[in-house]
Each structure stands twice: as structure tokens, then as C-alpha cells.
Amino acid sequence: MRAIDQAVHGLVRGEAAWAACDLAKRRKLLEQMQAATAEATEAWVRAAVLYKRLPATVR
């Protein structure tokens, strides 16, 4: 199966799984995604701050 076909197949499966969830489950999943996104953002910000403190010759 080609990559694009796999991606479309994954989207269809994901839509079916989402449709099968009740509202409470959807809310919980969205809260988990928001928390994961916030954690990743914090990590990237910390890395950027550390990077900017390096001497110009190291970059």
C-alpha cells in the first residue's frame, strides 16, 4: 500500500473511532491532547532559551 493510501486509510479509521466515542470520551481525549501539546510547547521553549544562551561559535 502506498503512503498516501495508508494515510487516507488511517484518517478513515480515526474518524470511525472518533464517531464511536461518546462526548465524555471525546472531552477526555481532547484534554489529553491539549496537555500533551502544552508539555511539548514548554519543552521547545526551554530548548530555544538554552540555545540562545550558547556562544555564537557553537551554533
What would you say this structure looks like, in words?
There is one protein chain. By secondary structure, the protein is an all-alpha fold. It is about 80% helix and about 0% strand. The model has no long low-confidence stretch (mean pLDDT about 85).
Topology:
Blueprint: H1 3-20, H2 23-52
General shape: flat
Number of β-strand runs: 0
> Whole-number radius of gyration?
19 Å
Query: What is the end-to-end distance?
Result: 41 Å
A few lines on this structure:
With 59 residues, the protein is mostly helical. It is built from two helices and no strands.
What key phrases describe this protein's structure?
mainly alpha, 2 helices, 59 residues
